[in-house]
């Protein structure tokens, strides 16, 4: 059993991490770091509530630390846990800066511990479907990829995510999901151009982002806004053999918010409309989506901690996301295209990892 401490019991810790950790049979949440013991015990009566990080890092019985705290605390907390010999999962964004990301990746390698990032959107139903379409060549060669992750929250909320501190704002919140999915599909772009700004009257941190990742053979457009109530697709993908359009967000976040657990027979079903053009499709012009599978992340983390499988989201991939995120911020400030600041070794390592993942996907298709 992998004994686990959850750091933070706000929205991310309570809504995402705790239910998914509890869904993994090989993980036991024994400790929660929180200033609200009553809320923790209401959800997890058996947990020990810690009030200081030292209580967690000095506990020899804790194997894995999951960090779901405000963004600016990710790097220092992860570093402390790694130095204490713990395996670590960090909620996105991995860190606030690329420099912090590289330092954590190096520390994890030195300490020979699993360090992973909670990129749950890799297991969205629609993204799993899109990966399968591209793997099978259904759309041919992709020439345009539009990915939008929007909210409709016209009123600024008094919370750190919408404040003016380090790592606040929509680009740090939703940008890592958009970037990670694009890099998983297409690799690191040659350069990035971006416009990131505040659109709400009372806003104090960016709440709108439009970013293009430049590749030699395709246009990749990423968009996020706090002022979109509907009418635009989540994905619009166009290739030499067809197009695929998908509306609406994956349902798993909503299911978790409503208290639905992964064991439910309705878990991960996404009935939002999609349409496939240029090929025959089942249903009313669309495809049947696979079930979303957020529980797969912690199942893979548990296997990696036991040495039975690979890290599902590696530190190198997290570094790449931060490099693109920072390039977009720099581009928005300067008005110029900016190349992600990745070394040749990092680029080669990422390319090798993409090839390996593609081979694994092809092998899985043949089974």
Q: Main attributes?
A:
Dihydrodipicolinate Reductase, domain 2; 13 strands; globular; 2 domains; Rossmann fold; six-stranded parallel β-sheet; 367 residues; seven-stranded mixed β-sheet; alpha/beta; single chain
How would you sum up this structure, described in words?
This protein is α/β, with parallel strands linked by helices. The protein folds into two domains: 2-120, 3-Layer(aba) Sandwich (Rossmann fold); 122-293 and 314-366, 2-Layer Sandwich (Dihydrodipicolinate Reductase, domain 2). Helices cover 38% and strands 20% of the residues. The chain has eleven helices and 13 strands. It has helices spanning 11-23, 37-43, 53-57, 74-83, 98-111, 125-136, 170-186, 252-257, 295-305, 315-334, 344-366, and strands at 2-7, 27-33, 48-50, 64-67, 87-91, 115-118, 142-150, 191-197, 208-214, 219-225, 235-239, 243-246, 274-277. Strands 8-9-10-7-11-12-13 form a seven-stranded mixed β-sheet. A six-stranded parallel β-sheet has the order 3-2-1-4-5-6, sandwiched between helices. Strand 4, helix 4 (74-83) and strand 5 form a beta-alpha-beta unit. Helix 4 (74-83) runs parallel beside helix 5 (98-111), helix 5 runs antiparallel to helix 10 (315-334) and helix 7 crosses helix 10. The protein is globular. The chain starts with a strand and ends with a helix.
